[in-house]
Design a protein that fits this description.
By secondary structure, this protein is of the alpha/beta class. The chain folds into three domains: 80 residues, Orthogonal Bundle (Arc Repressor Mutant, subunit A); 107 residues, 3-Layer(aba) Sandwich (D-Maltodextrin-Binding Protein, domain 2); 97 residues, D-Maltodextrin-Binding Protein, domain 2 (3-Layer(aba) Sandwich), CATH 3.40.190.290. The chain contains eleven helices and 14 strands. It starts with a helix and ends in a 9-residue tail after the last helix.
Length: 297
């Protein structure tokens, strides 16, 4: 049985469809379909039930998927073991935030590509919430407070942030001194998120309200500097604004708890070596370059 056929079946099973698996594997949908046909013909059973929404595992497919995944992982481990000097090859698809990715994470990917000339790195920069499984990504970098999900996360470093506003906004509307006063102000947000603050050892959660929203932290910083409201933003985004006086911290008695940057990946038994290496390089990058992140605490 061809190992590529096994890996393709596992990719389709995990991604829930041929299209997503083809994107993850970097091949055409027709190639994925041919591989699935071969493996089902060889086994003599149907592993996947095709639907209008993708593909669902049959009972036989559910049983076979775990065996196929283990066999594929063993082959991948064996291949990696015999590669010279820990060399990586194949393709790594990474989703990164547009707000931080090009400036803060891209240098790490470039360094990784230099170290491993046979590795193909495909990166998507977007602040939208990417579905790793459906869209065929090996991993993603996420910043902030992680939402509950079935994804596996590894923290790579801290992200500190502050509430900030422009002097003009404060002059016109005042500066909130307590959490209760904050709800009376215009909040600049990415969506309908909650904001958290430390009141001594206790975490207080607030549902801010506002008329200006954007899915990009740099856009929110610009809106705050223009006097549209108060924003919770990472220090590395507002550092230059604060240095020039365009933005100033507010409600400093109640600091937000530190957030984090994470590598998240689809659930599975073990991360691929490519994801492990990227994670290790990002952890090292955080430790080596704290000033780049504006960690001026």
């Amino acid at each position: 049985m061809d190992i590529e056929d096994l890996q393709t079946f596992v990719a389709v099973a995990d991604a829930g469809g041929v299209s997503a698996a083809a994107r993850r594997l970097g091949v055409s949908k027709s190639i994925v379909s041919r591989r699935l046909f071969r493996i089902e013909a060889e086994l003599g059973v149907q592993l996947l039930a095709r639907t209008t929404r993708g593909a669902a595992l049959t009972e036989a497919g559910i049983t076979f998927r775990d065996h196929a995944a283990r066999a594929s992982a063993e082959i991948d481990t064996a291949r990696e073991t015999i590669l010279p000097s820990g060399e990586l090859r194949g393709r790594l698809r990474v989703a990164m935030p547009l707000s931080f990715g090009p400036t803060h994470f891209a240098p790490v990917l470039a360094e990784m590509a230099q170290r491993h000339p046979q590795l193909h790195i495909h990166t998507s920069y977007s602040d939208r919430f990417v579905d790793l499984i459906a869209e065929g990504f090996d991993c993603a970098i996420r910043v902030g407070y992680l939402q509950d999900s079935n994804l596996i996360a590894k923290r790579i470093g801290p992200i500190y942030g502050k509430l900030v506003a422009s002097p003009d906004y404060i002059k016109a509307h005042g500066s909130p001194e307590t959490v209760e006063q904050l709800v009376d102000h215009q909040a600049l947000m990415q969506g309908t998120e909650a904001w958290q603050f430390m009141d001594g050892d206790k975490i207080v959660t607030v549902q801010p309200q506002g008329r200006f929203k954007a899915d990009n932290a740099a856009a929110l910083a610009a809106a705050a500097a223009a006097g549209l409201g108060i924003a919770w933003l990472p220090d590395c985004i507002t550092h230059d604004y604060r240095a020039s006086g365009a933005l100033v911290p507010v409600m400093t008695r109640y600091p937000p708890p530190s957030a984090g940057a994470y590598v998240v990946r689809p659930p599975g038994q073990h991360p691929t070596r490519k994801v492990r290496v990227l994670t290790e390089m990002l952890i090292e990058h955080f430790a080596r370059n704290p000033d780049v992140w504006g960690l001026d605490r």
